[in-house]
Sequence to fold (295 residues):
Amino acid sequence: MELFEGDRVRVDVDVAGEVSVAATVRGDGPPVLLLHGYPQTRSMWRLVAPLLAEHFTVIASDLRGYGDSAKPAAEVYDKRTMAADQLALMQLLGFERFAVVGHDRGARVGHRLALDAPEAVTSLAVLDIVPTLHMFEHVDRAMATSYFHWFFLTQGGGLPETLIGAEPRAWLESRFRGRALRPGVFPEEVMAEYERCFDSATIAASCADYRAAAGTDLEHDRVDRADGRVVEAPVLALWGEASYVGRNFDVLSVWRRFAARVEGRSILSDHYLAEEAPAETAGALNEFLGSGAAV
Fold:
């Protein structure tokens, strides 16, 4: 089910043709790649994409392992690989340079994409995250409680896959419940679409995504830090005023250790900014993406 209008595309992003990425394209103007978070799909942009598409060509993509994109073997979910998928998608669509907007897991993929392909990424907007390395190096009781899934999903032996697979709708609802300030943020048609895409293959892939974040991704991040590599493109950080990130981090100060040029502010919402406060989120993005420094 498509929750917002646009041209649906599916692009093979690897030489063997074994990994394809699904996306919806809408609008006209400079290209902007939208990357979703966990446990969602490109449908999370249903309220923001139309507002951005008034000024930009919007490409809302499903990450590898999520939505309608391919869900390959479990060992290939490091953010470098997932970022390479999205770079290939944009290049095959004819976009050599583009802006990236990511929420949650998508923001982590966008962060890696901006580091690995600085020639392609003109600007980066990250929604309600601080970098993975900083998160893991600042674990405390509050973080482990609020983000317990970071540690649960990394467990081996098929444990999280089995438990989540027994009641996938209950797990989805647990990720959304209590993480919104306003009622009605996740109506039934939206929940049904997320549930449609949250099959056993996605459950396995998303666990692999989190395992990579706690392993290979940290190795890559530490190499970057040792080498002094930071994001050179302009960065916009937006976060929920009531979210864990907003309540527990000086978001701009943290990001300025990982990027050369950072601006940003809070949005009156919890974690799911694009769905709880779409007009304010889109306004901030349009202002940033339309500035001379960001395109």
